[in-house]
């Protein structure tokens, strides 16, 4: 298991009147510099400082944090026309482009930064993206586990990992993982994955070979097609299950068609194979028109 990267001291530093031009104005020609104007006696400044330092590390060099003690910098304070602190000024291209006053909560500070720097992808989200592109399922799981270690409770990462566990039959582990995620945070995808686990744990009745023989003898044996489709879903073979019910939609124009349509829509929501769902939806649309 990898350890979190140590803080980079070069991303956050103190600045004085003597080096203000070099460390703020000139550096902002190369990279945005966020100037934190504070004073030792300022309570809100004390609250804001760790938030800014944390974001400087998380943004990984997208901006530099320069901290100016206004009690020791009267000329800079006058030049910036500081009336109240904490005052945070963003310098880009050698000049101030925006500012905010007061100890804003972290979310609002992020919004301020993202307005000028663009949204920053967290390390956990970067690992999730890497996992999506990984050809090796074990490598993908390792990346998702590390992402969860970095951001416990990250809903998209949790859902991705649970889906992968379901695909390889680790249903109990997936259910336990999903249980740590609230219904509100997990949304419809969490509900779908839990239903997928429930389906997998309850094997439908019927012999696949016998059902297939019935269908071969009578392609309109829709009871057999539904029963065989349920078994295929239990096996995790959604493509085969979709095919059985699509045949019902194609061959019937009344109640069986509607029953198959509704069942397909439900299973589309449970299937973790995006390609299979896309194919099923495409054929359903064609057969209904």
Describe it for me?
The chain has 289 residues and is of the alpha/beta class. It has three domains: 9-117, Glutaredoxin (3-Layer(aba) Sandwich); 123-201, Tetratricopeptide repeat domain (Serine Threonine Protein Phosphatase 5, Tetratricopeptide repeat, Alpha Horseshoe); 208-288. The protein has 14 helices and five strands. The chain has a five-stranded mixed sheet with strand order 1-3-2-4-5, with helices on both faces. Helix 11 (222-235) packs antiparallel against helix 12 (238-251), helix 12 runs parallel beside helix 14 and helix 13 (255-270) packs antiparallel against helix 14. 29% of the residues are buried.
């Amino acid at each position: 298991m990898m350890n979190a990267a140590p803080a980079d001291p070069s991303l956050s530093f103190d600045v004085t009147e003597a080096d203000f031009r070099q460390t703020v104005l000139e550096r902002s020609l190369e990279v945005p510099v966020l100037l934190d104007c504070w004073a030792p006696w300022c309570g809100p400044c004390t609250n804001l400082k760790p938030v800014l330092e944390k974001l400087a590390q998380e943004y990984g060099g997208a901006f530099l944090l320069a901290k100016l003690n206004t009690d020791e910098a009267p000329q800079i304070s006058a030049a910036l026309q500081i009336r109240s602190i904490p005052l945070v000024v963003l310098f880009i291209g050698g000049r101030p482009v925006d500012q905010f006053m007061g100890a804003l909560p972290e979310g609002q500070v992020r919004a301020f930064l993202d307005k000028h720097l663009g949204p920053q992808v967290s390390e956990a989200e970067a690992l999730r993206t890497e996992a999506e592109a990984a050809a090796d399922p074990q490598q993908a799981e390792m990346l998702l586990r590390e992402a969860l270690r970095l951001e416990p409770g990250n809903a998209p990462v949790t859902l991705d990992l649970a889906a992968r566990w379901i695909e390889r039959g680790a249903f109990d582990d997936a259910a336990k993982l999903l249980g740590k995620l609230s219904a509100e945070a997990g949304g419809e995808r969490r509900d779908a994955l839990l239903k997928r686990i429930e389906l997998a744990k309850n094997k439908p009745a019927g012999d696949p070979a016998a059902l297939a023989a019935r269908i071969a003898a009578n392609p309109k044996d829709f009871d057999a097609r539904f029963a065989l489709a349920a078994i295929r879903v239990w096996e995790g073979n959604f493509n085969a299950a979709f095919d059985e019910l699509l045949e019902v939609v194609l061959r019937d124009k009344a109640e069986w068609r509607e029953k198959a349509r509704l069942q397909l829509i439900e299973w589309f929501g449970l299937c973790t194979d995006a390609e299979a769902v896309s194919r099923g939806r495409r054929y359903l649309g064609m057969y209904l028109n």
